[in-house]
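tool=predict chain=A
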Amino acid sequence: MVTPNYWDPRTGTDRPTTTPNTIRFLAADDFPPFAFRDGTGRLTGFNIDLARAICEELEAACSLRIKSFDALVPALDGEEGDAIIAGLATTPGNVQTLLFSDPYLRLPARFSVLKGKTLSVLPEDLVGKRISVVEGTVHERFLRSYFSGAEIRTYPTATEARAALGTEEVDAHFGDGLSLSFWLNGKISGNCCEFVGGPWLEPGYFDHGLSIALRRDDALRQAAVNHALARLQAKGVYSELYLRYFPVSFY
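tool=predict ok
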């Protein structure tokens, strides 16, 4: 099973001279599998467990405070917490007012095909092949830029674009790897399909990822969080968490 690794093993080994005694994380609880309430009401999810692992690695006291997504930045600005772990986008506006950790999860695009089908998904090998994609998305834009020789068929929704693959109206489907991984592993797909080729992370298209946001003046915690993320990858903790919540890897 392939798991992502964004950290250079030659870096992140030296612990920062000073690390924070506490990290008060802010999160939302309505974004499964990243943060949600299980059947017993317990807060869980990839982001939640990663936050706890960061604190354990730094030997820092850890707390989690739940807010609505729109209230997270105001809560951080108001010093109700120290760090947001909720997939806050690194938009130009946010980068000007906040610090961000290194990305802890990038969201690639992937091709999927019917099981048992052998298909190379290089641009030159998809000339004349039919590819479904959701119209108006960055995935369509990418296909039209790099796979212009293919027959690109657009659909209003992901459900329709994926269904076209199941009924063999198309030879392949191209879309968001994360959501596709859950579709492939769910009942709706009927176990019809599988990923083919590798993840697409082209700059300008699929290079955005999930990072932890901190106040602009909190370089101490930023450095500590970056160190902890690298150490969690080196120790195998990150991969274990990834496979716990993403059993069909989108890498």
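The radius of gyration is 20 Å. Helices lie at 46-58, 72-77, 92-97, 138-146, 158-166, 177-184, 219-235, 237-245.
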